[in-house]
Amino acid sequence: MQKIAGTYLSILLSVGAAAQELPYSVCTGCWNPDSLGNQRVVVRCPNVTTRGLAEVEIPWRRRDDHPERKRIIVQDSATGGRVKNVWAATVTREKGDIYFEPVSEKGTYYVYYLPYRNEGRSNYPKGVYWKPDTTADETWLKMTQSGVGGAKARWPSNAVAAEIQSIDSFNSVYPMEVIATAKETAALKSKSRGNAFLVYPEDREYPIRMRKDVPYRWIKKAPDQGEKGTADRGENFAYQLGVYALQTLSDVRVEFGGLQNGDGKRISADSMVCINTDGVGYDGKAFKKKPGIAAGEVQALWCVVRVPVEADGVYTGTVSVVADGRSVVMPVRLNVTGRMAPDHGVGEPKKMTRLPWLNSRLAQDNTVIAPYTPLEIVGDTVIRLLGRSIRLNPQGFPEQIQTFFTPEMTEMTDRPTDLLAEGIHFHYMRASDGKDIRLQPGGVRFAQRSPGTVSWEATGTSDKLKMEVDAALEFDGFLSYTVKVIALADVDLKDIVMHIPFQPQAAVYMMGLGRKGGYRPDSLYRWKWDVAHHNQDGAWIGTVNAGLQYSLRDQHYVRPLNTNFYLQKPLIAPSSWANGDKGGIDIGIKGRSMLANNYSGPRRMQKGDTLYYNFNLLVTPFHPINTDFQWATRFYHRYNNLDSIKATGATVVNIHHATPINPWINYPFIEWRRMKAYIDSAHRLGLKVKIYNTVRELSDHAYELFALRSLGSEIYSPGPGGGFSWLQEHAGDNYIPAWFVPEIKDAAMINSGTDGGGRWYNYYVEGMNWLVQNVGIDGIYLDDVAFDRVTMKRIKRVLTADGHPGIIDLHSANQYNPRDGFNNSANLYMEHFPYLNRLWFGEYFDYEKNSPDFFLTEVSGIPFGLMGEMLEGGGNPWRGMIYGMTNRMPWTENADPRPIWKVWDAFGMGGTKMVGYWSPNCAVKTDNPAVPATVYEKKGAALVAIASWAGQDTTVRLRIDWGVLGIDPTHAVIEAPEVRDFQAAQTFGIDEAIPVEKKKGWLLIIRAKE
User: Fold this and answer.
1) Residue 548: what are its φ and ψ, rounded to 5°?
2) Burial class (CB in 10 A: 0-12, 13-18, 19+), 611
3) Can you tell me whether residue 915 is helix, strand or coil?
4) Strands (E), 431-537
């Protein structure tokens, strides 16, 4: 049975002498859109002559380009069969003239005019529209064409287009994607001669969707008639001003006149905003936009009135659209009901009440986030922060960086680890002799002293050059430098370089600049800029308890796209550091240091020229690892029955997208009531619930989609378009299609990032805050990250507000591939590590072929104060336990950490001290360096994990420091508990050789005999 819900649009089209009214409706699930498309026309043949020929003119008013290149399929409603003999005589965007041979004299037929097929990957489909085919019998086709095009009189139409149907309401084109005809548009222009533009107020219920076409809806009503709306008290009331440009406009803005009711109460103009012209960036800074509109195009201007809670009655006033010195003033009439809108009505996002979130400054203040401590300035040069300190030289650069973490990374110590062999410094070398141009330092002046941020300024001057340094250190160890180099006279330079001289013993590992994480190369490593193919501008160098990530930037830096999309929006090469193809980085031992030599090559600077040699530093680790959190917090990564989840021993449920309570990717606001009910039930069982929600792409089901599209490329990244059929048919063009869920047909588009102010980040922060306060989420699961650390700090603040746990775990697929620009996931996301609780690296990571140093640096998180889990293929459980990692249930078939959880519980892992194989204090080692051991110590017992990277099966003997363990070896026993799918139970002697299979290992408990 057809399920039809319809709204009717009267389209007047002369068909012979009669006028036809064509309704638009929805017929949910009435046909298979993946073969027939999303739209069809219902055609009725009341009187087919003996010719056996039906003709129908269809005024479909389509927005798609080149409809003549798309197939027409005619289907008989009675049999469901395809009509073979069809001729599409005329196919334009305005109408189609279709001839076909009916099955019976009378009947109903369906004309499908956008049939498509999906090509490509299931999660990244490419909707390809079928080209016109030639199924018609040649004799029938010739007869029909000759009868129409020959000397005979044109055959009259004997079929009627009864209505246009969409497969569901989401695919409906009514009313805002029904185009005006060229004749109607020309008449409108003619009638409006002398005007630069027309303005059509439009209700929030009908978002303006088309930029290149006037909707037919506007042809039927006069422009500039004003806005009439109804809002509740306290509501964020949204409406649109649709500007149709009759000539090109370069400076469009909205001026609000304020509103007043009959009692003299006012809603001031300050309570109104147009998001297209006035914004607040993700960094909290206000900005203005002046949209331009090409002649013949339409621009939606979305306006919001913040209705005061005390407002009541009918308010009137004016709003003006001003462009290039001309203005259109329109009346506004707003009826404020007696109903109060809770929280400004944002619980009803379909009403566009959340648009002010785009301009939010929520959680922007740089307050200190636990477990970090306030910054402390000691004397004139030293700044202390959690587990680290930085001493500045007179030019404002780090003279020394020290960390105070133990090699085990479980606690802090009073004994510092020096990271630098000498201070970070610049060299400015003359082209004539290669000698330095010495800059006289002007000393350091602190500009800001706050618990969360300390900033300072410094200068260096010579007769040829001046260096201006502005720097800021934040409480998590992020240090940003703006280094402005100004030519005071013409000067030829052989090079401008920055040296970072590491202590060799603190530069054991390296990650980035084209190298996977692992041991730093012994020989000189050379790297050159290649941003077109490589998302690389710096590296992390360090050891487990001391390290430094640095990245080279200039004033034009824009965050690139990542995760499959880097090549579509790569890094912008910094003109200073890259200097065309002359710049690069050399890393290797020089003298008593391991030197990172960051050079830019020869250049000539003329007097007044300015270059920006900016760079960022991240001092690692960020905090000690929290082993007790690792043992006690057990993720269940799937939507499931809560009682079943509780029975597994898991403590935290991760709700992915494409689930009943969180269906739409990165837009968890449609089924939020079901989500809240689920979370409330989980909390009653003692479970926490986190949801998938991030920024990179956004579901096409987002209520605000077309309002966001009205902002140009500010929210959505520009691109080639394409992808799933819904995007092509409704989003139009200039976007990048992203993730797609076939089961629910959820199609997403890529976000732009910080371009244009990054206002979607503001919305994201507000949305997370709303979910915490109103839905009760306990944290978020991030599947790769497209936002920067500014947004991550804001997210952590709102997630942990009012005592909420705010758990964040980050998954990443391996980014070291051509699509992602050969970047390392840990290097790419390190700026976020200070605020994460766990890593899940991850998809496409090879746990079998990579070495322990790769595990340590790229997967485990330990050098940064984190711990992790494994994903690909369920991981390697023996190697994982060397780093305290299991896999995550039940994401893959073999992902079941419960047998290992059982060992943890039986041993009593809470309160143990983890001493990894990398620590010189590890009390248990093996006699084979390819089979490392990690110890989990507690009084009177130790759990020892050993894992093999040997090339074949082997045996090892344990070398045990019994004094450190506090166990008498004469009364000790070594037992391997039974662990399903891991090991059989076994007891070993103190000096017995232990067999170790290739790529496997053991969990051994050493304790005193009872």
Assistant:
1) -145, 125
2) buried
3) strand
4) 440-449, 453-461, 465-474, 478-487, 491-502, 509-512, 515-519, 525-528
The Cα 967–Cα 974 span in angstroms is 12
**How far is it, in rounded angstroms, from Cα 504 to Cα 543?**
10
d(CA 965, CA 883): 19
- Rounded to 10 degrees, the C-alpha dihedral 921/924/925/926 comes to 180
Contacts of 575 (CB under 8 A, 6+ apart): 554, 556, 611
State the pLDDT at residue 579: 98
Residue reference for tokens 């990957």: 121
HEC assignment per residue over 32-43: CHHHHCCEEEEE
Q: Which helix (H) or strand (E) holds 852?
A: helix 852-854
Contacting residues for 829 by C-beta, under 8 A, at least 6 apart: 784, 785, 810, 812
CA atoms within 13 A on the CB side of 684: 8
96 burial level (CB within 10 Å; 0-12, 13-18, 19+): buried
User: 121: Cβ–Cβ under 8 A, 6 or more apart, which residues?
Assistant: none
User: What is residue 224's predicted lDDT score, i.e. its pLDDT?
Assistant: 82
**Residue 455: burial class (beta carbons within 10 Å; 0-12, 13-18, 19+):** middle
Cα 53 to Cα 44, 95, 98, 149, 162, distances in angstroms = 13, 19, 11, 15, 18
Q: How far apart are CA 1007 and CA 969, in angstroms?
A: 9
Strand pairing partners for 125? 120
Amino acid sitting at position 941: A
Burial 418-439, CB ≥16 within 10 A → b, else e = ebbbbbbebbbbeeeeeeebeb
Q: Are 370 and 800 in contact (CB under 8 A)?
A: yes
Backbone angles phi, psi at 320, to 5 degrees: -125, 140
Q: Is the dihedral of CA 775, 781, 784, 786 positive or negative?
A: positive
pLDDT reported for residue 1010: 76
Element (H, E) at 121: strand 116-121
- What's the CA gap between 231 and 241, in Å, rounded? 17
Tokens for 228? Answer: 């009439």
Question: Which ranges of the chain have pLDDT less than 50?
Answer: 1-20, 50, 150-154
Q: Which residues face 936 on adjacent strands? A: 914, 943
Backbone angles phi and psi of 357, in degrees to 5: -60, -25
Compute the radius of gyration of the chain from its Cα atoms. Answer: 34
At 12 the pLDDT is 32
Nearest-CA neighbor of 486 among 508, 467, 461? 467
Question: Residue type at 426?
Answer: F
- Give 123-126's long-range contacts (Cβ < 8 A, gap of 24+): 123/739, 123/740, 123/741, 123/742, 124/723, 124/737, 124/738, 124/739, 124/740, 125/723, 125/724, 125/740, 125/742, 126/722, 126/723
276 conformational bin, left if phi > 0, alpha if psi -120 to 50, beta if neither: alpha
Token code pair at residue 350: 């379909």
Inter-residue contact 109 to 102 (CB < 8 Å): yes
CB count within 10 Å of CB 141 equals 16
Structure tokens at 313: 């009655």
Q: CA 249, 253, 259 angle in degrees (round to 5)? A: 140
Q: Are strands 593-599 and 491-502 parallel, antiparallel or unpaired?
A: antiparallel
Give pLDDT, residue 152: 40
Contact status, residue 170 vs residue 26, Cβ threshold 8 Å? no
Residue 841 pLDDT: 94
Q: Which of 855, 864, 826, 965 is nearest to 405 (CA)?
A: 864
Please give the torsion angle defined by the CA atoms of residues 531, 536, 537 and 542, in that order, rounded to the nearest 10 degrees: -170
Cα separation, 271 vs 287, in Å, equals 17
163-187 b/e (C-beta count within 10 Å ≥ 16 → b): bbbbbbeebbbbbbbbbbbeebbee
Cβ atoms within 10 Å, residue 677: 12
**pTM metric for this prediction:** 0.95
